[in-house]
Amino acid sequence: MKIAKSTSQPKAQAALQIVYPNAAGLDIGASEIMVAIPPDREGVTVRGFGTYTPDLAALADWLSEAGVTHVAMESTGVYWIPIFELLEESGFEVIVVNARHIKHPPGRKSDVMDCQWIQQLHAHGMLRGSFRPEAEMCILRAYLRHRDNLLEDRAKHIQYMEKALLQMNLQLGQVLSDLTGETGLAILHAIVKGEHNPLILARMRHGNCKHSPEDLIKALTGHYRKEHLFVLKQALEMFESFSQRLRECDQEIERLLEEMKPELPDDFPPLPPDPKPNSHSKNAPSYDARALLYPLVGVDLMAIPGMNEILLQKILSEVGLDMSRFPTDKHFCSWLGLAPHNAISGGRILYSHTLKNHNRAGQCFRLAARAVSRGNTVYSEFYRHIRARSGAKEANVATAHKIARTFYFMLKRGQPFLAPDLQTYLQVQREKDIRRLQARAIKFGFRLQPAEVS
Questions:
Q1: Mean pLDDT per segment of 10 residues, for the chain of length 454 residues?
Q2: How far apart are CA 373 and CA 381, in angstroms?
């Protein structure tokens, strides 16, 4: 007699809990903002607003009247910034959601359905806001990003000057390492003013110029044409204009850093000596960024190999000063795009590599890794060791990951940088290589013996 198998009744799935009962969703466009509030509110629960400032104020008032406390918004570009700042100042808990992280169900798509979908996801606590540093750091970030744009625009006009010179066969690029240096600018101003005699132009050579006056005379002997001189004149004027705008931007950044300087205790340690006195950059800020940033962070982050003033202030403006927002160094490196992403299916790792992203702080750490690759530190040896095994690309990411972890622990714990001993590191690596070679020799039936050195 067969015994009937007992079939267990399927358990009813628990309904999704409402985490934020007073949540609203915004879908932001260039000329219209669609807003959805909880459907249990009286009256209309979905409204459209314009993007003018009075419209944004009316939107905030409507949300306040509806009892909304949490707001999630989806947007691309910079359309979200005005409404985000206004709602944040009004006391709402606001998050910006990456549009790629919101998987809309298939079917007809519209702005009304988008804002309702965002509201529903946020009410159930299923959305994670994009990272945004502290308010003061956001201001600093805006200045520094504008500074980068000025440098890029100025570089374009340097290229225009080089092209105009080459079209007149003035080979200044072969005798001057920097066209915008002291010698180069003096010669360019003289050419624009009408001086085309190579003997007179060569006298403007600075004493530190490596090439002889004879070389400059040859390079400055060309075919001056009216149209190319006009292009050179305008490019030089634009270069000087952007240089002036850059100095004004540096002054504004210096003023902001002075305002952000906290009140320090009497026992606060003084700024240690510059660990890189011989490093310099033509695009470095005109102010002492290291001295201004030291009171803010409490440690000298410039001591990290590969770090300079430009990279340091960019990274701080992107990540902020509060490292508690990243629970561990692994979270921090993953957000930077420096940690591998493991695609796992069926218990197996299908592939493992870093994902493509445009994290500005992560790019700064990659630049620091590239700079440290030419040095004589533990980080330099680590880079060369990984490069010999896996290639330059993997070595750059691995070294940037190492520098980022050092940055994270220094800023979070307030500990100064302790340079690891290079000889100890090399000895450890040598012992690892020996063990690896011995294991491979045993695998093929051989045994390694140390050679006797006479």
A1: 48 70 93 93 93 95 94 87 93 90 74 89 90 91 96 96 94 90 93 92 87 90 93 96 96 94 86 82 89 92 93 95 93 91 76 81 95 91 92 94 95 90 89 90 87 70
A2: 8
Please classify residue 48 by burial: count the beta carbons closer than 10 Å to its beta carbon, then call 0-12 exposed, 13-18 middle and 19+ buried.
middle
Residue 263 CA to residue 265 CA, distance in Å, equals: 7
Is 326 part of a structural domain of the chain? yes
Domain annotation covers residue 397: yes
Same structural domain for residues 170 and 115? no
Task: Note whether 70 and 93 are within 8 A (CB).
Answer: yes
Question: Looking at the structure, do residues 163 and 240 belong to the same domain, yes or no?
Answer: yes
- Within this chain, do residues 253 and 355 fall inside the same structural domain, yes or no? no
**Residue position matching structure tokens 């005005």:** 82
Judge whether 220 lies within some domain: yes
Distance of alpha carbon 325 from alpha carbon 131, whole angstroms: 9
Q: What percent helix, strand, coil does the chain show, rounded to 5? A: 50, 10, 40
Q: Please check whether residue 270 lies inside any domain of the structure.
A: no
Distance, CA of 156 to CA of 335 (rounded, Å): 32
Task: Give the structural domain span for 235.
Answer: 137-260
